[in-house]
Specification:
The structure holds 2 protein chains of 2 kinds.
Chain A: E1 3-5, E2 9-13, E3 18-25, E4 32-37, E5 44-49, E6 53-57, E7 60-65, E8 70-75, E9 84-91, E10 97-99, E11 103-108
Parallel strand pairs in A: 2-11
Antiparallel strand pairs in A: 1-3, 3-8, 4-5, 4-9, 6-7, 7-8, 9-10, 9-11
Chain B: E1 4-7, E2 10-13, E3 19-25, E4 30-38, E5 45-51, E6 57-58, E7 67-73, E8 76-81, E9 90-98, E10 107-108, E11 112-116
Parallel strand pairs in B: 2-11
Antiparallel strand pairs in B: 1-3, 3-8, 4-5, 4-9, 5-6, 7-8, 9-10, 9-11
Classes of the chains: A mainly beta, B mainly beta.
Chain lengths: 109, 117
């Protein structure tokens, strides 16, 4: 079956670094997406990885290892506004997105 | 950038009535639209996938006669919740994708908060 796993909740301190992990099992693979979702709002796109390696975009970076079925989202210099849920989604062979349950990130001052 | 407009943002209706939610792609042709439902503190749950001009494909457990989806044009899809009940209260979100953009990010509407009293 197809499955995405990510931690339910994480807590970090303002100014620090946090890594949110995601493991996936899909029928075929066409890339891994990360979305940010604030409470009561729709998700917004953060990153897309289809090749192994690290993609850096400002304070946010995303890593992919296809052989391990593993990705992480790295957030640096955390700000209070980064408090949100972070959703991992893998695209299968039909480009259907398989969504993780989301990781709620709590930032403390 | 691509914009998806969803309307209304929130709606309160009485049990037994029907509610229609609209999803429009404003600056691109959305050949495929997706309808999601999200209960509090839970992740997105795909309800159905609709392709312009054809019948929607519903996910297992989603009643197609209760959640009517129409994708009559390349810029508009509608979701009608028929005979709504309190358990249908949820956050409904649409997203859209253009032809040939299968690996591009989904463009999401802002969501509709439905409360059934």
């Amino acid at each position: 079956g197809q499955n995405i796993d990510q931690p339910t909740e994480m807590t970090a301190t303002e100014g620090a670094i946090v890594q949110i992990n995601c493991t996936y099992q899909t029928s075929g693979f066409n890339g891994l997406f990360w979305y940010q979702q604030h409470a009561g709002e729709a998700p917004t796109f953060l990153s897309y990885n289809v090749l192994d390696g690290l993609e850096e975009k400002g304070r946010f970076s995303s890593f992919l290892s296809r052989s391990k079925g593993y990705s992480y989202l790295l957030l640096k210099e955390l700000q209070m506004k980064d408090s949100a849920s972070y959703l991992c989604a893998a695209a299968d062979s039909n480009y259907q997105l398989i969504w993780g349950a989301g990781t709620k990130l709590i930032i403390k001052p | 950038g691509a914009v998806v407009s969803q309307h209304p943002s929130w709606v309160i209706c009485k049990s037994g009535t029907s509610v229609k939610i609209e999803c429009r792609s404003l600056d691109f042709q959305a050949t495929t639209m997706f309808w999601y439902r999200q209960f509090p503190k839970q992740s997105l749950m795909l309800m159905a996938t609709s392709n312009e001009g054809s019948k929607a494909t519903y996910e297992q457990g989603v009643e197609k006669d209760k959640f009517l989806i129409n994708h009559a044009s390349l810029t508009l899809s509608t979701l009608t919740v028929t005979s709504a009940h309190p358990e249908d209260s949820s956050f409904y979100i649409c997203s859209a994708r253009a032809l040939g953009q299968e690996v591009s990010p989904l463009h999401f509407g802002n969501g509709t908060r439905l409360t059934v009293t």
